[in-house]
Amino acid sequence: MLTADILDAARAISPRITDLRRAIHADPELGLETPRTLAKVRDELADLDLTWREGPSCTGAVAVLKGAQPGPRVLLRGDMDALPMQERTGLPFASQTDGRMHACGHDAHTAMLAGAARLLADRQADLKGEVLLMFQPGEEGYHGARFMLEDGLLGSADDETLPDAAFALHVWPNAKHGTIMGRSGAMLASADMVKITVTGAGGHASMPYDATDPVPVAAEIVLALQSMMTRRFDAGEASVLSVTMIEAGSAQNVIPDSVEMTGTIRTLSPERRSAIRESITRVAQNVAAAHECKAQLSFVDGFPVTVNDTRAVELSRHVAQTMGGEDAFAYRPNPTMGAEDFSYVLEKVPGAMLFLGAAAQGGDWQGCCGLHSSRMVIDESVMPKGAAFLAGCALRFAQSGWE
Question: What is the DSSP annotation of 326-393?
């Protein structure tokens, strides 16, 4: 079943994949509630022999395609939510809602997964086991995958109904057209938020000696945290701490009582994740104390590290090269410090998150507008390959497992 023919079959349904992607792109939804997007998917797949599961926590849904023969369970995932930003692509099917845009490719992910569902349904008579098609909202910081797991939509570890393997594909506009990319181990970072409130005593800006000014203390903390990152942690394991918001004051001649700072922490291991939190707390509180201020800190857990199983990466390489030759797959030398909530799935199920180069064919892929840009576009002609790749991973695992 797994030959280059599956790519030809995907190209044959390319208009359907493209039409669905454009319909979703023009009508973006945010967060955990994406009912119109899910309705578009269900309408597109209404003629297929699928069983649908939905839960109470969000509009995520899993479509189950049962093969004609017993075998393993394979999960394929596509995310559905957009970002709260204004689109500036000028596309004829651009967002029709101000302040919302599919700038991370989730519209393409959903359309490719729907295409994979159709390719697999056409091979249902020869399919072993079952394929779980995970249409997930809330990837952009809303923990949609975690909610779907908690709702039991993917099965349970208690009764051994979780999938045996899981695969997801993310378009990458700054990569060569059509190349599948992956790596074993950490593929993407964890992402946590830190909030630091520095409290002093306000006063008249002309008489700072009669106040306890928290503004320069906050500035000193920002610089001290950057020194901490470069001096306390081995650069061989990448870590990022960025203070991105600083809020204080109400007038130019008033020293405020407090300063609030917010930032993001990105790490590639649970150990580093914990150690950086401890160091941030120690540095902020002690710098503040040195200036007779106080620093209060809080952390918000984001997505965990996305860790790819070596067997899943090698299976992905085999599928990509079977469809497109030796150059169709590339190993990424390093993780990216972005984050993905498919990590929740990979904590429980062996699998892999892969990237798909979506730059224009023959274009300057290094100079393209990247993910989360208001001008981010993809070459839609790559989507049949993405659909075929997802279907191919399911077929390969159903046939041979991790062999």
Answer: GGGEEE-SS-BS---TTHHHHHHS-EEEEEEE-SPTTS-GGGS--TT-TT----GGGHHHHHHHHHHH
The whole-model pTM stands at 0.93
Pick from 133, 131, 153: which is nearest to 144 by CA?
A: 153
Q: Tell me whether residue 262 is exposed, middle or buried, using C-beta atoms within 10 angstroms of its C-beta: 0 to 12, 13 to 18, 19 or more.
A: middle
What is the predicted pLDDT for the residue at 22?
98
Q: What is the Cα–Cα distance from 224 to 215, expressed in whole angstroms?
A: 14
**Length of the chain, in residues:** 403
Q: What is the tens place of the pLDDT at every residue in 69-106? A: 999 999 999 999 999 999 999 999 999 999 999 999 99
Average pLDDT over residues 276-298: 98
Can you give the C-alpha Rg of the chain in angstroms? Answer: 24
Residue ranges of the alpha helices (H) in 264-341? 270-290, 310-324
Other beta carbons within 10 Å of 166: 27
Measured distance CA(251)–CA(11) in Å, rounded: 61
Side-chain-side CA neighbours of 195 within 13 Å: the count stands at: 8
Q: Give the residue among 168, 152, 166, 164 at the shortest CA–CA distance from 75.
A: 166
Residue at 319: amino acid letter? V
- At 2 the pLDDT is 55
Residue type, 34: T
Give the residue among 229, 230, 225 at the shortest CA–CA distance from 198: 225
pLDDT average, residue stretch 270-291:
97
What is the distance, to the nearest Å, from the Cα of residue 100 to the centroid of all Cα atoms in its chain? 17
Question: What is the phi/psi pair of residue 188, to 5°?
Answer: -135, 160
Residue 308 parent element (H or E)? strand 306-308
> From CA 288, how far away is CA 158, in angstroms rounded?
48
Q: How many CA atoms lie within 13 A of 379 on its CB side?
A: 22
DSSP code for 201 = B
Q: Is 89 left (phi over 0), alpha (psi -120 to 50) or beta?
A: alpha
CA 193-343-43 angle, 5° bins: 110
Whether residue 37 contacts residue 110, with contact meaning beta carbons closer than 8 Å, is answered with yes
**pLDDT per residue as tens digits for the range 92-144:** 999 999 999 999 999 999 999 999 999 999 999 989 999 999 999 999 999 99
Residue 102, amino acid: H
Q: How far is CA 130 from CA 46, 49, 120, 161, in A?
A: 18, 12, 10, 11
Q: Give CA–CA dist 277/192, Å, rounded.
A: 10
Q: Smallest Cα–Cα separation from 294: which of 349, 218, 230, 347?
A: 218
